[in-house]
Amino acid sequence: MLSERVRHNKIIFSGTVGAGKSTAINALSDILPVSTEALATDEIAGMKKTTTVAMDYGVLNLPGGEKVMLYGTPGQERFSFMWEILSNGGIGLILLINNAQPEPLTDLENYLGAFSNFIAGTAVTIGVTHMDRAPAPGLDAYRARLAELGHTPTPAVFRVDARSRDDVAMLVKALLFTLNPGLSDA
Amino acid sequence: MSRPSPVLAPAPTAVFLLHIGSMDNRLIGLSIERHWKQSIRLAQSLDEADVVLVDHDRPGVDEALNQLARHPGIGVVGYAFRPESLQTRFPHHLTVSKPLNLDALPGVLNRAALLGRPLQPVALTNMAIQESSEPRPWVSDEEPDLCGSLDDIPPSPGAPLPAKLFFEPTQYLIGHLAQALDEAIKTGRPHVVSGLPRLIGVPPLPQPVCVTSFRDTQLRPFSMAQLPDATARVVNALTFSGPGSTDTLHTAEDFLWNIAAWAARGRLPAGVDPYRPVRLRAWPNFTRTWAAPHALRIVALWTREWASPVEIARRLEIPQRYVFSAYTSAHFAGLFQPEPLAAISPPAQPANDVAPLIPPQRPSILSRILRKLLNAV
Ligand SMILES: Nc1nc2c(ncn2[C@@H]2O[C@H](COP(=O)(O)OP(=O)(O)OP(=O)(O)O)[C@@H](O)[C@H]2O)c(=O)[nH]1
Ligand SMILES: [Mg+2]
């Protein structure tokens, strides 16, 4: 595991198609524009009008001129070869799962599997999105699946609306405290 | 928005990656290899390039661009967070915005290479920032502490505990609510807390929820006050008809977390041993629950290990009342791990043998990010 100092300043956003990765990065980022989208094609066209076909970038400007990059992975499997490269050296993973998809708990399992090496050395927090439209499965079902998969202590799982900056910021704060509960919040 | 159509060249266009970071280099290299072999190849030097791709946001870009003076025939595609700012400086470059739209990039590179004359800058597409969703129900701007002012109790058991450390849940809304939830789950039937100005319904299925037309601002004072005897009653709601138009629906876990925090105000439910180790089985849903000061740190540590409330406060070097509030909320929200069997008692942390989690001297990158989020949100 890399020490904090040599890690690149970047936080990775990943998750299923339409879960809200681009939206979440937009909500948190200090720069505009941060996302480029193309018309969705093929199998996802029925679901969503646009989709990210490359990585999303966002930036958090810290006092003193330092920057934290927010990187979003493309939702489409076709670009999954990027996931590992993008996350290499990152601080941690924010995983967004679209609860309105048919098998969100399977999606959770697949994404955790894909990022297992990265998570083992860092941390993950999970935002379940679209719960306003699809309330089930609930957070307890996610926690149970996480426990089954051996993720102890159970990572933070929040109900998240990716359009809300407060919700997205809460995911990042939980990620930071998961990495180090000793951080001062005063 | 239309889909850019790639312009097919007879031979693959040779692109030289000029002044591009190592990660972008790899991603673009892999994309060429996997998806665009027919139309694009990587040039090893400027001499063999038809077009260069240059990252305008990296320091030193001007020196890099100076190399192009000796290669006037090469097309240039620049990319940047703010491509519009490049239009005046580099009127002859084709500019696109970050992030690179990889599906569109081959088309852009081919255009820059083939046209062989100055191009007007274009940004591919920009997405406007989304409207934020409705405000969070529980959070207000004035951030009252609501954890009281109790002094710490001694770090190890022995001395008698002050009575004001405890509250009797049955004298508060939280006690009635917990009873309603309990009975609803046991019987599988909705129950209602009545006797207050508005009802709180607790249907147990498919997932336990609390339904009420109480607004947050009204609920808080009712949760904090001791209710006179026989004010609130829990009744089996044969006729409970589900949420009406003025009702708000909360998951029972979130709702009880909040109501309990407001009753607790830094205290513990009567009968709890503040020296007994416990452990959280999960984080509460902090995007919808009220987070008292230090609540996130407390939860982060308490999901990791068995520790008593007093021990958690010591490890985090915070007043115990914040941990007692979190304990009370977690208890009523059902977030503690089930008791281990007596035979395998939890691995107690002997007091004082584990060092407090002291923040590093120089603020780490984690704490600097945290500062930013705490100050901005
Ligand atoms: N109703 C609802 N809409 C949401 C929620 N979260 C995000 N959205 C919307 O969902 C849509 C998809 O969000 P995107 O940010 O494009 O999703 P993405 O994860 O980047 O998708 P890909 O790039 O295609 O993988 C947008 O219109 C968002 O505004 C939510 O919790 N509820
Ligand atoms: Mg996207």
Short description:
Chain A is an alpha/beta fold. Helix content of chain A is 31%, strand content 20%. Chain B is built from ten helices and twelve strands.
Q: Determine the oligomeric state from the structure.
A: heterodimer
The averaged pLDDT of chain B comes out at 80
Low-confidence stretches of chain A: 1-7, 33-49
Low-confidence stretches of chain B: 1-9, 117-143
- Number of helical stretches of at least 4 residues of chain A: 6
What is the β-strand count of chain B? Answer: 12
Give the terminus-to-terminus CA distance of chain B.
34 Å
Number of domains of chain B: 2
Instruction: Provide the helix percentage of chain A.
Output: 25-40%
| Shape, per Cα inertia axes of chain B | elongated
* Count of domains of chain A: 1
CATH homologous superfamily descriptor of chain A? P-loop containing nucleotide triphosphate hydrolases
Helix/strand structural class of chain B: alpha/beta
Helix and strand pattern of chain A: EHEEEEHEHHEHEH
Number of helices of chain B: 10
Main sheet attributes: strand count, strand direction, barrel closure of chain A = 6 strands, mixed
Please compute the radius of gyration of chain A using only Cα atoms: 16 Å
CATH topology of chain A: Rossmann fold
| Number of separate strands of chain A | 8
Protein model, in words:
- The complex is a heterodimer of chains A (about 190) and B (about 375).
- The longest helix of chain A has 15 residues.
- Chain A is of the alpha/beta class and about 190 residues long.
- Chain A is built from 6 helices and 8 strands, in the order βαββββαβααβαβα.
- Chain A starts with 9 loop residues before the first strand and ends in a 7-residue tail after the last helix.
- Chain B has 10 helices and 12 strands.
- In chain B, the strands form 3 sheets. A 5-stranded parallel sheet of chain B has the order 2-1-3-4-5.
- The chains are: A alpha/beta (about 190), B alpha/beta (about 375).
- The interface between A and B is large, with 75 and 69 residues.
- Guanosine-5'-triphosphate binds next to helix 1 of chain A.
